[in-house]
Amino acid sequence: MTAVHARTPLPAGPETVPRKAGLLPRIAGLAWCAVILWLLCSNLVLPSFGISRYETWAAVLGGAGVLGLTVAFPWLLARMDAGLAGLRWLRVLLSVLGWSVLFSCQARAADAVRLPPDWDAAPVFYSALALADGAPGNVDVSYFQINPNNLLLMLLLSKFMETAQALGVTDLRQSVAYLNAAVLFCGMLLTYAAAALLGGRQTARLTLVPSIILILFSPWLPVFYSDTVGLLFPILIFCLLAAAGRCRWPARMLLWAAAGAAAAVGYGIKPTVLICLAAAALVGLFSIRRGRWRQDALSVLLAMAVAGGSFAGMHGAVQAWERSSVVNGDPASREPAIPPTHFLKVGAQQYPGPNGDYYGAYNEPDRLGTLSIEDPQERFDAGLQAYRERVEAMGPAGYAGFLNAKLRWITGDGSFFGWGEGGMTADQFLADDGLSRSIQDFYGPGRPGFGFSLSLWQGTWFLLLALCGGAVFLRDPRLAALGPVMARISLLGLLLFLMFSEGRARFLYLYVPYFIVLGAVSLQCLPVLTGRWGATRRGRQPVEDGAKVVE
């Protein structure tokens, strides 16, 4: 469970190079790249739309423009660095100012496009508000007993609301909008840090433009829910593991423990967070070097023990907090939770949407059918039986075609199913001042600027898919390092999970930082940029000639 940074020259002595991942993880990662290329090409030729319908030509033009900005922005910042050489204090000041301006713009946009809570976000918000107001009787107990996966998010939000009220805040909806913006902003900072750990400053700067479009001004900026909050955890875990690979043992163990604790909290908010920690363990186990198998095996097993123990401890603490909450009252009156087989059942059906079929998406009749069965074991068995019947009805070839169509549909929506849940509409925005209404024109379906935003989101997403999938054609050691391979295996695991479970593009969103980081690394490894930014340096030694490997 280690990650590495990309090769950088040492002032003297041998070159620093990344440690290569094992053969099996590299092959699995390349297989993921090939799948991504197929999904991209098929969606360009025959688009699979979510709730919103984009124009392919506009999205492609948008992606080309984003590519130009993505490359030009780091070049411009590098020129500024050169002009301010020797004035480090001024560079730091300008950097802080730049990040502050970005967050200020994002917070203003979040305030403008906030919406009344709807669908599952509604019981989370109003129940948290009830706890903050000291009215536990108003908590939607039945909802959280059926959907315990949202309980931790509600409890955390209630603590935030209590703190905001103690500070004299009266508009809690506005405060939650700012909280949503702050969480996404931290996700952008961590995306930048992850890329810096892998490839240095230039690679980190390549993440800025895609992050601004897909994270800072996220399609989900109007809604505080587990998809935006959950985005923070996979990239945080990645950064902690990458930083552990650059530290000595005492600090390394602390970072492993922090990664396990973060995974436990993230798992309580969005269970798919755990995939990245499992991927790190698998990549570590299958990357043990023959010549150093004792040291590598000890390091990986120790990392797994520390992170696993930390995860277990934090998970136990989270469960104890949840059990002590108002939701867990009289056991005799508890509503049994929806079992995992329900989501397996939902993931094997399709129905017409506004712009084409929906595959494996939320289905109200399926939900009501599950809830109509009171016995927990019967619920579990009924879900599994319904899944079997649906798969048998499709047949092997039909089910394979269904899974392909489902993955195409999930990965084809660069707005990540924004506005596709509940009854959200573009006439429900809470802010009504002039500037807010101008900003809303770019966020609401049917508004005059929404087509531009949709093309920008979709074009950026297509660009990231092209860069991530295109890595299969590049031969650069940085792409075969532990860090990028771990990210690919994480995303492979996520696709496999969504392929069989309930899914839609929204469920991809918390791993968008991984796509951005992998896209930046691929872009940095393109020969045209390698030559321009001096990655091929005079006097570079091959790995075999005494290069230093960084764990």
TrEMBL record:
<feature type="transmembrane region" description="Helical">
    <location>
        <begin position="254"/>
        <end position="286"/>
    </location>
</feature>
<keyword id="KW-0472">Membrane</keyword>
<feature type="transmembrane region" description="Helical">
    <location>
        <begin position="507"/>
        <end position="529"/>
    </location>
</feature>
<feature type="transmembrane region" description="Helical">
    <location>
        <begin position="480"/>
        <end position="500"/>
    </location>
</feature>
<feature type="transmembrane region" description="Helical">
    <location>
        <begin position="29"/>
        <end position="51"/>
    </location>
</feature>
<keyword id="KW-0812">Transmembrane</keyword>
<keyword id="KW-1133">Transmembrane helix</keyword>
<feature type="transmembrane region" description="Helical">
    <location>
        <begin position="231"/>
        <end position="247"/>
    </location>
</feature>
<feature type="transmembrane region" description="Helical">
    <location>
        <begin position="454"/>
        <end position="474"/>
    </location>
</feature>
<feature type="transmembrane region" description="Helical">
    <location>
        <begin position="298"/>
        <end position="318"/>
    </location>
</feature>
<feature type="transmembrane region" description="Helical">
    <location>
        <begin position="206"/>
        <end position="225"/>
    </location>
</feature>
<feature type="transmembrane region" description="Helical">
    <location>
        <begin position="177"/>
        <end position="199"/>
    </location>
</feature>
<feature type="transmembrane region" description="Helical">
    <location>
        <begin position="57"/>
        <end position="77"/>
    </location>
</feature>
<protein>
    <recommendedName>
        <fullName>Glycosyltransferase RgtA/B/C/D-like domain-containing protein</fullName>
    </recommendedName>
</protein>
